[in-house]
Amino acid sequence: MMYEANPQLAADMQGLSLDETDIPSEHDAKAPRKTAKTPPVRVNCKPLPPKEEYDTPRSTGIYYYGFYVGNGSIEKYGVKVNPELANADISLQYQYGLDYLRALVGDRDESLRVHLAVIRRRHKKAMPFITQRKQAPFLALFPLEWEAYVNRMSARKVEKLAEALGCRPEWFEIAMFI
Predict the structure, then answer these.
(1) 124 FRET partner, CA 20 to 30 A, in 9, 22, 58, 155?
(2) Domain annotation covers residue 115
(3) C-alpha pair distances (Å), 20 with each of 23, 24, 30
(4) Is residue 75 part of a domain?
């Protein structure tokens, strides 16, 4: 018995073409585009603390990059965002302000914390509004460690915090973790 080719199959095979014009290209409008997610631009946290300062710590010798938040800047931000807090207790203003700052940068794990920092001459030169003599509160963003440096905040998030607090970030030595 001899096998005969299916006439319908033969017609379908002839209809197929291997011309390049029939093959969809990568740039075809119908083809979905692949978009690579680019990592955000990380904050430029240089210059690092001076070597002399780093080699002779006044307290713990642990450095964090962050914002000076003395003079009630967290409380002021809380009232600015929520004017109903104007007559509320200062501790409530502080808590709301800190929560708003965390929400501003999407800090879900609450890694933004306020600690006590050692105030040095370079801090007072850069920020003349600092009134404390030796120690002051500051909002810590990340420590001076390799892993934290590689995974540091984006420049956009730090910029948002700088606008909210009205000052720029700086490296501070931790006097006390709070």
Answers:
(1) 155
(2) yes
(3) 5, 8, 16
(4) yes
